[in-house]
Specification:
Strands 1-2-4-3-5-6-7-8 form an 8-stranded mixed beta sheet, with helices on both faces. With 280 residues, it is of the alpha/beta class. It is globular and about 50 Å long. Helix 3 links the parallel strand 3 and strand 4. The protein is built from 10 helices and 8 strands.
Amino acid sequence: MRLLLLLLPLVALAEGSANKTTKDIPYKDDVVSQTPYEIERCKLDLTVPAGAKGFPTFVWFYGGGLKNGDKDMRSEYSAEIRESLAQGGVAVVTPNYRLSPKAHYPAYVDDAAAAFAWTVKHIAEHGGDSHKVFIGGHSAGGYLALLVGFDPQRLKPHGLTLGSVAGIAQVSGQVFTHFTVREERGQPKYGITSDEAAPCFYVRKALPPVLTIYAQNDMISRAEENQFFVANLKAVGHTENYSLRVNDRDHASVGHNIRNLDDPARLAILNFIAKQSASR
């Protein structure tokens, strides 16, 4: 299924506006119970469209195989992606999270859930609408977003439900048990497992809206994995299920090029957020 929605006024009116960024906001309050590594990593940056009120917010997780990455790393283009999407009238949160092997599953998933929960609970203080908080990411970031948005147990400790997730826009995420999780368990990296650590394990009809984006020249088996995921959602009757294959992109560029204003993945994400925001 290809997604190409018409731009709603939310997107068109905000192009070219200035943005305001606040950096290194801790997203966990219980400092006493955190490890030094947790305190170091569990911070986020927030970019808000200047002058806007009641805007939607997109929590974006970078990729890196759950082993690498940082919201300030130039090669991940997190700051550029944040600024680019904010030009479309959407506030963007880019969190750091703990990485393997220093942390093991489910630490990084718990961090992703905590960052999303912080956003829901605090975005109104920055002018946003707490009912319009979306989550997504590229590669490992897409995997994290799907687990947070599909498994109700991830948000339960924060007093939230899957209904708190306005939608999920994931780019080339792993939908089976992530290969880094498998490595941590001493299992073959490229075996296929779909257990509680796999987004596919939670596929059912009543889930938040999902946009799946992948590349024409994605990493080996990843395009097919995402195609299966979309088909699986369709099979169980999940109706708010959209997908886009971006031509002339590989696994890295399909995510990194979102920083470009005319990028089809960027436009699809903004359109998805606008469409789902209109119904909340």
